[in-house]
Amino acid sequence: MVTVRNSHTLVALVQDKPGVLNRVSSMFRRRGFNISSLAVGHSEQDGLSRMTFVVEGDDATVEQVTKQLYKLVDVVRVSDLSNEAVVYRELAMVRVRATSQTRSEIMQLVDIFRANIIDVASDSLIIEVTGDEDKIDSLQKLLKGFGLMEVMRTGRVAMLRGNASAAQESGRRRSPNGARANKPQDYEQIL
Q1: What is the C-alpha to C-alpha distance for residues 149 and 5, in angstroms, rounded to an integer?
Q2: How many CB atoms lie within 10 A of CB 68?
Q3: Which CATH architecture has domain 87-153?
Q4: Which CATH number fits domain 6-84+163-177: 3.30.360.10, 3.10.450.350, 3.30.70.260, 3.40.50.2300?
């Protein structure tokens, strides 16, 4: 029997304090889950950060990851955005070799991909590009012919489309077994 492996996007709202990222990544390591992409940043709520994970695996794997995340005391909420109407984006900075002969051709590619040149040196350019993973992969592939020197990618971030937000959905938040999640009162006010 062949197991179908899909890319799932999970967003966790976590307490913004030292050691949380380590505890979350240690849980993934201990359980043998692989994180394809991880982006972390402050959320719109003081004291909370948002982590966006891209996890490869079937639905059972994602359910297990979600259950394990809920066991961590610093995790306030986990949302699986995989089957939702979502906007995905990634940021990349690419340093590419550029000579006086190739600079204009690179600049044309940058314009086509609606990217920006953010640094110019005598022998290289740094290009900033945002978009979905396919767009960034395509630009990176085209720039490879000029000589990629360095690539830095943020990983996927995601938000629900339209008026829906992860914060609004949290009011209906359920624990993985379907019961109303029991978090301390101060979390209910945040959510």
Answers
A1: 32
A2: 18
A3: 2-Layer Sandwich (3.30)
A4: 3.30.70.260
How far apart CA 61 and CA 10 sit, in angstroms, is 12
**Pair of tokens at residue 34:** 């692989």
The predicted model scores a pTM of: 0.73
99-129 residue pLDDT tens: 999 999 999 999 999 999 999 999 999 999 9
List the structure tokens of 130.
């945002």
**What would the DSSP string read from start to end of 73-92?**
TTEEEEEE-TTS-EEEEEEE
DSSP state of 62: H
Q: How far is CA 31 from CA 26, 35, 53, 57, in A?
A: 8, 12, 15, 13
Residue 191: pLDDT above 50? no
Question: Six-digit token pair at 152?
Answer: 């830095």
The 8-class DSSP code of residue 145 comes to: T
| Residue-level pLDDT at 165 | 59
- Per the structure block, which two tokens stand in for 186? 């101060």
Q: Where in the chain is the domain with CATH 3.30.70.1150?
A: 87-153
